[in-house]
């Protein structure tokens, strides 16, 4: 196991890092355009909401299974070649959702598309992490998280402008994927290379790096479930529909503004302690939501700070992996990171939604607090263990 070596590595190429960030942002933008688009298209074709949900879950299954194979694929094909192949596959598959009328063919199509997306993110984040320079890794990851968040926010906005009817949104998404190929193709000579077949299984990192790996699971659960159900929570609180929708914007804006400062902080303080602080702020912020209901300005400010700080679980967790592992081990660790984010996305919406149903309206806040509290306990134990070694 290669640990600690990454912090003594020579500075990577910021140009190559920027290329990977640009490509991953393009992927995120197109996916955030595609997720609601595909649901709207299926609804227009007469598919029931239940079947749409089942079909969507196939993407989550792909995101859970595919990372297990990514480290070996990277060692066989090379980082740049695999990243470009994944982006090209997404560009080729996306228009097929418009062309394929048979709903049952959408199941293998959705699996293949999200398998390619998972490979792209796992390899792209490994690329950024591996090349990030000593002492500036948190900054690089913070920039990545910030720009990616902007891309994810832009997708639904584009859909709102062009609508879901016709071929236009599919052509736009495909074009964005193709544009995303260009930066990585230009920087392919600077991609991390020389990787051997990993000696450590992806699942092993759940045991040897739980502070980072489970941080992203907690974040994925709250981000997916929270952002999907936060407007419903707002309606349960009695807010008008537009105000309830804006609650999500407050969280997203906080996430955009804070990730670079948090990344800079991750370069200067003990990262396990910072992860614990982010989780504790997540607990406190969730429990404070019921107290802020009557003052909309306070609620927006709370969600802004809460969303920004808890987003640090992603940024700091990814930075922590880059500081601990190098080479093939880092590729495997990044794959585990992507896999656990997907696991959180599968678990979060179901549990948060169930809690909201059982204990309206504050079941939402209690469920979110539970996810962060569970992770805070783990992070606290790991921090104590680290001090004892």
First-to-last CA distance: 17 Å
Number of strands: 0
Mean pLDDT: 89
- Name of the CATH homologous superfamily of the largest domain: MFS general substrate transporter like domains
| Beta-strand residue percentage | under 5%
Percent helix among the residues? over 70%
How many independent structural domains?
Answer: 2
Oligomerization state: single chain
Sheet with the most strands? none
Provide the descriptors you would attach to this structure in a database record.
single chain; 389 residues; mainly alpha; Growth Hormone, Chain: A; 2 domains; 16 helices; disordered N terminus
Summarize the structure.
The protein has 389 residues and is mostly helical. The protein has 16 helices and no strands. The longest helix has 32 residues, at 327-358.
What does this structure look like?
The protein is mainly alpha-helical and 389 residues long. It folds into 2 domains: 5-190, MFS general substrate transporter like domains (Growth Hormone, Chain: A, Up-down Bundle); 202-388, Growth Hormone, Chain: A (Up-down Bundle), CATH 1.20.1250. 79% of the residues lie in helices and 0% in strands. It is built from 16 helices and no strands. Helix 10 (210-236) packs antiparallel against helix 16 (363-388), helix 11 packs parallel to helix 14 (312-324) and helix 12 (271-288) packs antiparallel against helix 16 (363-388). Residues 1-12 have low confidence and may be disordered.
């Amino acid at each position: 196991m290669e640990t600690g070596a990454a912090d003594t590595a020579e500075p990577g190429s910021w140009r190559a890092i920027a290329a990977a960030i640009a490509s991953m942002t393009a992927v995120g933008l197109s996916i955030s355009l595609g997720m609601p688009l595909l649901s709207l298209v299926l609804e227009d074709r007469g598919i029931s909401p239940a079947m749409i949900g089942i079909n969507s879950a196939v993407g989550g299954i792909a995101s859970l299974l595919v990372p297990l194979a990514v480290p070996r694929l990277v060692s066989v094909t090379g980082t740049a070649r695999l990243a470009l192949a994944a982006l090209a596959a997404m560009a080729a598959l996306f228009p097929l959702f418009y062309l394929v009328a048979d709903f049952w063919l959408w199941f293998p199509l959705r699996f293949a598309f999200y398998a390619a997306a998972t490979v792209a993110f796992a390899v792209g984040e490994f690329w950024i992490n591996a090349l990030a320079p000593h002492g500036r890794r948190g900054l690089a990851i913070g920039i990545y998280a910030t720009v990616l968040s902007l891309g994810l926010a832009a997708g639904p906005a584009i859909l709102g402008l062009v609508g879901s009817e016709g071929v236009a949104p599919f052509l736009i998404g495909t074009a964005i994927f193709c544009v995303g190929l260009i930066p990585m193709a230009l920087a392919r000579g600077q991609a991390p290379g020389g990787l051997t077949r990993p000696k450590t299984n992806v699942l092993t990192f759940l045991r040897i790096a739980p502070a980072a790996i489970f941080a992203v699971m907690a974040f994925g659960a709250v981000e997916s479930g929270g952002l999907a159900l936060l407007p419903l929570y707002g309606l349960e609180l009695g807010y008008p529909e537009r105000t309830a929708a804006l609650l999500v914007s407050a969280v997203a804006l906080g996430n955009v503004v804070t990730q670079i400062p948090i990344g800079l902080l991750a370069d200067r303080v003990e990262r396990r302690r910072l992860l614990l602080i982010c989780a504790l702020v997540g607990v406190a912020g969730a429990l404070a939501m019921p107290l802020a209901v009557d003052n909309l300005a306070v609620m927006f400010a709370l969600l802004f700070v809460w969303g920004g700080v808890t987003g640090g679980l992603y940024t700091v967790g990814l930075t922590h992996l880059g500081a601990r592992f190098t080479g093939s081990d880092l590729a495997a660790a990044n794959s585990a990171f992507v896999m656990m984010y997907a696991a959180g996305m599968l678990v979060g919406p179901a549990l948060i939604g169930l809690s909201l149903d059982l204990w309206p309206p504050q079941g939402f806040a209690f469920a979110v607090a539970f996810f962060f509290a569970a992770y805070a306990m783990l992070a606290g134990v790991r921090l104590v263990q680290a001090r004892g070694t």
